[in-house]
Amino acid sequence: MSALRPRGTDVARDADPVVVGERAEGVLGRSYRALSVGIVSVVLLIAFEAMAVGTAMPVAARELDGVSAYGFVFSAYFTTSLFGMVLSGQWSDLRGPLGPLTAGIAAFAAGLLLSGTAGAMWLFILGRAVQGLGGGLVIVALYVVVGRAYPERLRPSIMAGFAASWIIPSVVGPLAAGAVTEQLGWRWVFVGIPVLVVLPLGLALPQIRRRASGPVGNPAPGPEPRPDVHPAVSPSPDGSPSPDGAPSGAHPAPSPAPAAATAAASAPVPPSPLPPSLSPRPSFDRRRIRLALGISVGAGLLQYAAQDLRWLSVVPAAVGVALLVPAVLGLLPRGTYRAVRGLPSVVLLRGVAAGSFVAAESFVPLMLVTQRGLSPTLAGFSLAAGGGAWALGSWVQARARVEPYRERLMTTGMVVVAAAIVTVPSVLIETVPVWTVAVAWAFGCFGMGLVISSTSVLLLKLSAPEEAGTNSAALQISDGLSNALLLAAGGAAFAALGGGAAGHTVTTAGGSGSHPAAFVAVFLPMAAVALMGAWVTTRLRERT
Question: Is the pLDDT at 7 greater than 60, yes or no?
Answer without folding.
Answer: no
